[in-house]
Amino acid sequence: MINRPIQINKYEVKNRIAMPALVCFHWADQEGFETYDRGVHYGKRAKGGTGLIIVEATAISKEGRLADTELGLWRDEHIPQFQKLAASAHAEGAVVIIQLVHAGRQGVGPSVYSSSSASLAEKECHAMSAEQIEQVKRDFVSAAIRAKQAGLDGVEIHGAHGYLLSQFTSKEVNDRSDQYGGSLDNRLRLSLDILTAIREAVGKEFILCYRLGVNDPTMEEDRYFARKLEQIGVDLLNVSSGIGANNLEMPEISYDPITYMGTEIYKEVDIPVICVFGIRDPKQAEYLLENDLIDMVAVGRGLLADPEWTNKAIAKDKINICYHCKPRCRYVIDGRECPWYSSF
Ligand SMILES: Cc1cc2nc3c(=O)[nH]c(=O)nc-3n(C[C@H](O)[C@H](O)[C@H](O)COP(=O)(O)O)c2cc1C
Q1: Distance (Å) from CA 130 to ligand 1 centroid
Q2: Which one is catalytic: 11, 42, 113, 163?
Q3: To 10 degrees, what angle do helices 219-231 and 184-202 make?
Q4: Ligand 1 pocket: which residues have CB below 6 Å?
Q5: Ranges under pLDDT 70 in the chain
Q6: Which CATH number fits domain 6-276: 3.30.465.10, 3.20.20.70, 3.40.50.300, 3.40.1790.10?
Q7: Is 294 in contact with 275 (CB distance < 8 Å)?
Q8: φ and ψ at residue 295, rounded to 5 degrees
């Protein structure tokens, strides 16, 4: 089942395994340029058989960075690094899209902006003006156009993990009283406007994916949002956590609540849905696919530990299993800290 193709927009993805966005902190400079060759990094995962690669969180503007060593796509000069990456992934038969992000109140620097002035940590946070909202929309569109110019096959808009778009969709953060706050339709407006504007700018044949941060605060709202995303022409949903994803009522099942939420969104729409979290053993992926619980399975840390994860899963060979380091993934500190770094 892993080895079954799937159609996403005009692309046939050769199997059901996706590499989700995994930001490589400290592997870029402060201007958004790589300091570690992403052509090699992603090329190895493509060579290892992974059908769909989602390139790590890449900032649409300098102030929208989630870290000061994050890749950027806010200048034309950034395009060549992604051209190289796209070419190496394509040479190995992978479809490759890039995740675009604005971090909002989780951004770099002492002064940040968001859907409200509720701040995190010691940052000074400002509620966004109408002009700042329009600028963010333009920045997302420009970055998507550059992604297309680089030869990438699509974009994933980051609407999860508490970054800017989550800060708009979440009732817990968004306290606006204009057309971007209050009702559910108003809170979804910014994401939907951005996706619609991107589609207009890049045309029909460019994959438009949304990383949906769910249970934020309820799954009922997510189901509605998922249907809306499908209606406006999003091609693919990649389900992960939102800001308030900790009060979920779920049946007794053997996989993570985040994975479960993906399987629930799968029931709601006809476009392909990806689920994620803690998939280390191919049997877990097979279970989800064979039981018709999901379209695609994303393997994150597993693909860091073993770039050949997908080919080995298909051939039933032994995989380098990710240790899921505690208290947190050591790759987050720096890729070179990962116990499997030598196999990178
Ligand atoms: C080192 C690291 C970097 C990550 N970077 C991103 C990112 O850039 N964008 C994103 O949406 N999620 C990011 N995530 C979350 C992953 O995409 C994925 O959802 C998570 O690791 C769970 O999948 P896994 O259990 O297969 O690793 C990151 C996770 C890790 C461990």
Answers
A1: 31
A2: 163
A3: 30
A4: 20-23, 56-57, 99, 158, 160-161, 211, 240, 276-279, 299-302, 329, 331-332
A5: 244-247
A6: 3.20.20.70
A7: yes
A8: -90, -45
Six token digits for residue 322: 């990710």
Per domain, the residue ranges of the chain are 6-276
Q: What is the pLDDT of residue 252?
A: 79
Side chain identity at 40, as an amino acid letter? V
Q: Tell me the per-residue pLDDT of 122-134, one tens digit each, with 9 for 90 and over.
A: 789 999 999 999 9
| 97, burial (CB in 10 Å: exposed 0-12, middle 13-18, buried 19+) | buried
Spacing, Cα 20 to ligand 1 middle (Å): 6
Residues in CB range of 131: below 8 A, 6 or more apart: none
Residue pLDDT, tens place only, 60-102:
999 999 999 999 999 999 999 999 999 999 999 999 999 999 9
Residue 246's pLDDT is what? 61
- Residue 287: DSSP 8-state: H
